[in-house]
Amino acid sequence: MDSNNYLVWGPDPEVFTTPEIQLPFSLSILGLLLAAVIFYYGWQKIKPQKEGEKMQEPWKAFALAIVALIVGQIPFIFIGFGSFDTIPSIQPRWYGVLFACAFIVGYTITFKMYLHAGRTQEEMDRLLLYILIATIVGARLGHIIFYNPEYYLRNLHLVPQIWTGGLASHGAAVGIIIAMYLYAKKTPNMTFYWLADRVVPSVAIAGLFIRIGNFMNSEILGKPTDLPWAVIFERAPALTAAEQAIPRHPSMLYESLFYVIVFAVLIYMYKKYKNNPPEGSLFATFLVMLFSGRFFIEFTKLAHSEAEAEWALNMGQWLSIPLVLFGIWLLVKKVKWKKGLKKR
Question: For residues 145 and 321, what is the distance between their CA atoms, to the nearest angstrom?
Answer without folding.
Answer: 18
